[in-house]
Specification:
By secondary structure, this protein is mostly helical. It has one domain: P-loop containing nucleotide triphosphate hydrolases (Rossmann fold), CATH 3.40.50.300. The longest helix is centred in the first third of the chain and has 12 residues.
Length: 83
């Protein structure tokens, strides 16, 4: 029997614990994380965007993080295409 794929969205204000919750869920459900943070798509902006570490990204696959260089404009339309 085929079950529909579901997408869980975690939203909230800055510093509300979204990242920690996403990691907890990803570990328990053995799933991956797709970031929709408009700044985490850019490489080299790790501290200013509070990206998860490389170690965690090796443990739990993350998508649309470190995706493009900071000198490139990455629009909402670009995000839709990449996602």
């Amino acid at each position: 029997m085929d079950f529909p794929r579901r997408i869980l969205c975690i939203i909230g204000p800055t510093a509300a614990g979204k990242t920690d919750l996403s990691l907890e869920i990803a570990r328990s459900l053995d799933c991956e994380v797709v970031s929709v943070d408009s700044r985490q798509v850019y490489r080299h902006l790790d501290i200013g965007t509070d990206k998860v570490s490389e170690t965690i990204r090796k443990e739990i696959p993350h998508h649309l993080i470190d995706f493009c260089d900071p000198d490139r404009v990455f629009s909402a339309a670009d995000f839709v295409e990449a996602a």
